[in-house]
Each structure stands twice: as C-alpha cells, then as structure tokens.
Amino acid sequence: MTTLPDCQVPGLHHYKLGDILVTAVSDGFLRGSMTVLQNITEADSSAMLRAAFRPAPRHTSLNCFLIRSGGRTALIDTGAGAHMQASAGKLQQNLAAAEVAPEAIDTVLLTHMHPDHSNGLADAKGSAFFPAAELAMHEAEYAYWCEDTGAEAAVTASNRGVPYFAMARSQAAPYRDRLKLFRGGEVFPGVTALHFPGHTPGHSGFLVTSGSESLLIWGDIVHVPEVQVPRPEVTMQYDVDPAQAEATRRRVFDMVATDGQHIAGMHLHFPGTAHLAREGGGYRLHPDAWRFEI
C-alpha cells in the first residue's frame, strides 16, 4: 500500500536578480488571534480573511531570505526557532534541504528583533546557530531591545511584549563580539538597508540590487496582507509606535506602487514576493506565481 505524504516539500524558492541569487526560505507559520489587529473589529478582520478564502483566525507565514552575492552568503532574519509554535521553527531543516550549512552563512541581517524574526539565532544553551556569521541590525533596534531599560519598563507596564526583551538579549548574546550596527547604506554586497521605523524603532528593509533588477525585502510592513493592504490604518498590538508604523506603511506603499518595485515580505504568503499596485482609492497586492526557472 502506498504511503501518503504527511508534509510538503522543503519550503524553498529561488529568485535570480542579475548576479545575485535570492532564496526564500520558509520558517513555517504561526496561528494567531485576530484580536492583535488594531483599528478594526475582530468581526470585520475575520470577514476579510474569509472573503479572501483564508483561514480565520489567521495563519501568518514566516519567511526568511538567503542572499548569495559576490561569493558570500547572508541570511535575512532567522525565524522563530523552537520558542513559539510547532508549526514554526523550520528554518534549519529548510537550509539543510537547500544544502546551505549554518557555518557557510557569514552575515545575518535582521529586519528587527521580534521573536518570530530573531529567535532562530541561538539554541536553548545559548550557542550560535550561525557560528561564523556577523550579526547586523539597525543601531536603534539594538539600543531598544538590548540597551534601553527605560523602553523595557514602558512595554512591561503596558503588558505588551513582556518577554521580548529577555529573548532578544539572549539571542543576540553569542554574537556580541561580531555585532555590526548600521543606520543605512550598503550592508552586504548588493544589499542596502532602509530604515522603516514604527513597528519597532530600528525596523529595516533591505533593497537587493544587481544591474537593472531589484527586490525590496520590506520586513513587517504588513502582517495580514488581506487586511492591511486594503486597510493600511490597521496596526498591530506589537507595533512599538502604531502611528509611526501606519505612516511608514503608507509611505512604503506609495513608494513601491509608484516605482513598480518588486517586493518581498516576511509575512506575505510563501514564497513571499509580489507587486503592489494602486486600485481605485487604495492598493491591491499581486502575489508572484511560482517560478519554474531560476
């Protein structure tokens, strides 16, 4: 009797940008409540998901991206590790399927330090998963999570993200001697960091460019695309500065729609790339089809 599969093929998808190879690597997904969406009722947001034939409550994709450029290898974000849900933490097995050893990664770039993006940096014993990698993030991000105790007290008092500071510090600790903080500019061959604050103080996107081709990996500009693309005023409970997060989202939406910029997101449905176009008085997301050729 034929044994039926109980899982999908490895979560990998390659994009060639000139001389750079970008690989979307799935870390799995998280099941989450709709109550974390702000400026919208739970009934309305759930209805929007059902209208898009998506499960409600939400299933949120967790995407990381490998960048292979100039003989070097970078990883943008590290997923949730073993610290969240069993449906997440798939980065290491998918890297193995891509035949990329952890020690082959020489740079880890973080969009920000929320646990679904940075908890794959170190194991439960505090050892680095990427022993040869430099860890790079915006200087405001590191200051907020790893240095600014005033911010920790404020967030704890508001009962939002209470354990996040301890998680961020423990995950960053094994990289302390190989930490690179930036404000912007080129942070890896062909990769430019862009500051997109609001979701967190140092939240960043990364523009990957080779020749005439480019891809903007925009981090957490949206978490629930079916809701936040048509309703950019919808913020998340985990936004450090919700008003700024909304303003940044509107600014980035305008920029990518005007430029026709190819985009990738950590919470766009895998493989996580798309274009955003204006439609009526708002926007519409056009996810990429699967690419059969690299």
TrEMBL record:
Keywords: Hydrolase, Metal-binding, Zinc. SUPFAM superfamilies: Metallo-hydrolase/oxidoreductase. InterPro entries: MBL_superfamily_lactonases, Metallo-B-lactamas, RibonucZ/Hydroxyglut_hydro. Residues 61-267 form the Metallo-beta-lactamase domain. It holds the Pfam family Lactamase_B. Belongs to the metallo-beta-lactamase superfamily. This is MBL fold metallo-hydrolase.
